[in-house]
Amino acid sequence: MTPQEYAQQKAAASGSSFYYAFLFLPPERRAAITAFYAYCREIDDVVDEVSDPGIAQSKLDWWRGEVRNAFAGQASHPALQALLPHSQTFGIEARHLLQVIEGCEMDLIQTRYLDFANLKQYCHLVAGVVGEVAANIFGQTDPRTTDYAHRLGLALQLTNIIRDVGEDAVRGRVYLPIEDLQRFDVKAHELIKRGSTSDASFPQRFEALMQFQIERALATYDEALALLPAQDRQAQKPGLMMASIYRTLLHEIAREPQLVLTRRVSLTPLRKLWLAWKVQALGRL
C-alpha cells in the first residue's frame, strides 16, 4: 500500500474519537492530520505493546533516528513518508515529533506522579505538543490559539487517564497524582487490584476521587475554550469536536465511575459522529 493508505489504515484501525473529527476536514488537511496521528500511534504502540522496557527503549531510539533521517530527506517508515510532504505547509518540525517520543519514553521510567504539576509536564509532551501541531494543521491564524491547543491537549489527556485507570493500573502505571490518592485515601494497590478489595469503604473513596478528577478535567475544557480566539473558532472545529466527544464521555463515566476499573467506557461510533456533526453543522458543543 502507499504511505498515505498506510496512515489512513493506522488511524482508522485505532478506533479513536479523533478519526471522527478528521472526517470534516478538506483533503490536504485531513491527509496531514491523519499522517501525524498515525505517527503518534506508532510511538504510543511501542510503549503499550512491547513488554520488555529495554526493547521498547531501543525501538524509541530507532524512531529518534528515523525522525532525524526523515527531515534530512531519507524517511523509510510509511508513517513519516506520509507526513513529511506536509511538514513545511503546516509548520511541523522535528522537535514536535521528538517531543512525542520523549513523552512516551517517560512511561518506561516513571509510573507514578507526585502531584498535578508533575503530571502536567507529562501531558504537555504527549498531548500538548500534539494539540499544537494539530492546531497548525487545522488552520491557525492567531498565535494565542497555541495556548488554547495546549490546554485542550491537557483536557483530552486527563480524560484518557480517567477512562483508562483500570487498564493502566494492570500495566503498573498510576497516572492519578499521589497527592490526590492521599487526599481521598485511595491506595495504588487498590487500583492495581482493580477494586477487588475486602474494604467496604473503597467504592465510596474511589468515587469521590474520580468525581474530583472529572470535575478538574471538565474545568480544563472550559479554560481551553475560553482561550480560543474568535477568529480561529471556525478553523479549529475538529478540536471542538474532540472536546464535545470527550466531555460527553466524562459525563458518562461520572454516572458510574467504578466501571473504569474493569472496562473501557466508550461512546458508540454513531454517537461520536452525531456529536462531531453537531459541531460542524451547528457550531455547538
Automatic annotation (TrEMBL):
> Which EC number(s) are documented for this chain?
2.5.1.103
The gene that this protein is the product of is: hpnD
In Swiss-Prot or TrEMBL terms, this protein is called Presqualene diphosphate synthase HpnD
Q: Does the keyword Transferase apply?
A: yes
**Which biological process, per GO, is one annotated for this protein?**
carotenoid biosynthetic process
Q: Which UniProt keywords apply?
A: Transferase
A Pfam family reported for this protein in Swiss-Prot or TrEMBL: SQS_PSY
Origin superkingdom: Bacteria
Annotated PANTHER family: BIFUNCTIONAL LYCOPENE CYCLASE/PHYTOENE SYNTHASE (PTHR31480)
Q: Which organism is it from?
A: Malikia spinosa
SUPFAM superfamilies xref list? Terpenoid synthases
**What Gene Ontology molecular-function terms does this entry list?**
geranylgeranyl diphosphate synthase activity; squalene synthase [NAD(P)H] activity
